[in-house]
Design goal:
Blueprint (H helix, E strand, L loop, with lengths): L1 E4 L3 H11 L5 H19 L5 E7 L4 E7 L5 E6 L6 H7 L4 E2 L1 E6 L6 E7 L8 E5 L2 E2 L3 H12 L4 E9 L1 H11 L5 E9 L2 E2 L5 E2 L5 H6 L4
Parallel strand pairs: 1-11, 4-5, 4-6, 4-8, 8-10, 9-10, 10-11
Antiparallel strand pairs: 2-3, 6-7, 12-13
Helix pairs in contact: 1-2, 2-3, 4-5
The structure holds 1-O-pyrophosphono-5-O-phosphono-alpha-D-ribofuranose, uracil and magnesium ion.
């Protein structure tokens, strides 16, 4: 598994504002979108391309297009939805699948409540988007769905990750033969006793969309 931690002052600045408990929802949403656009630049570095001929007003030359089959972006609801617009701005030809997943706050186990993915993901480059990688339970379950459907090339784009979650994902995908990459804006210190990332930013879904019971 490959881990890429963004190292850029603009990303660090935006993450710091996100962490601030006084940052309001509209600002939080805007920053999430801006951050994912910056992270997507790195996450799509290995996107498959093909050579095409293009005629400019001056001459014909060879250029580059994103190849078929189209990549697929999969936001993990709710919080991942806040990253979707930023991601598809950089990957406009991508298809979009959806996974609705919720972490049981007592057991910290992930539960899937919605699943809308193409049945055949063979040969597709997949981009999972979710701002928080905490215990890793949610991301592991999401990667397992994609692998069951035939995907072999998965990149997860996250804003914050805990070291515990990164290690859990690394162990879970070992021996699957899949190529898995995690691109993250920052790796934090640890998880607390409630499974929250420390220092983190709190509950990303609640900060984007409001608290639900
Ligand atoms: O790594 P894990 O320990 O599994 O935790 C991470 C998950 O928790 C959050 O979602 P949450 O369950 O709060 O759902 P929400 O997006 O609807 O708020 C987050 O967006 C991840 O999906
Ligand atoms: O810190 C955390 C952990 C899980 N989910 C969140 O939204 N935040
Ligand atoms: Mg949440």
């Amino acid at each position: 598994m490959e881990l890429h931690v963004a190292d850029h002052p603009l990303i660090a600045h935006k993450v710091t504002v996100l962490r601030d408990k006084n940052t309001d929802s509209p600002t939080f949403r805007r920053l999430v979108e801006e951050l994912v656009t910056l992270l997507a630049y790195e996450a799509t570095r290995d996107v498959r391309v093909e050579q095409v001929e293009v005629t400019t007003p001056v001459a014909t030359t060879t250029g580059t297009h994103i190849a078929d089959p189209r990549p697929i972006v999969v936001p993990i609801l709710r919080a991942g939805l806040g990253m979707l617009d930023g991601m598809v701005k950089l990957l406009p030809t991508a298809e979009v699948g959806f996974l609705g997943m919720l972490r049981d706050e007592t057991t910290l186990e992930a539960v899937t409540y919605a699943n809308r993915l193409p049945n055949d993901m063979r040969g597709r480059q997949c981009f999972l988007i979710d701002p928080m990688l905490a215990t890793g339970g949610t991301l592991i379950m999401a990667i397992e769905y994609l692998l069951e459907l035939g995907a072999r090339d998965v990149t997860a784009v996250c804003l914050l990750a805990a070291p515990e979650g990164i290690e859990a994902v690394r162990e879970a995908i070992e021996g699957t033969g899949a190529s898995v990459k995690i691109v993250v804006a920052a790796v934090d210190e640890r998880l607390n006793e409630k499974g929250y990332i420390v220092p983190g930013l709190g509950d990303a879904g609640d900060r984007l969309y409001g608290v639900v019971d």
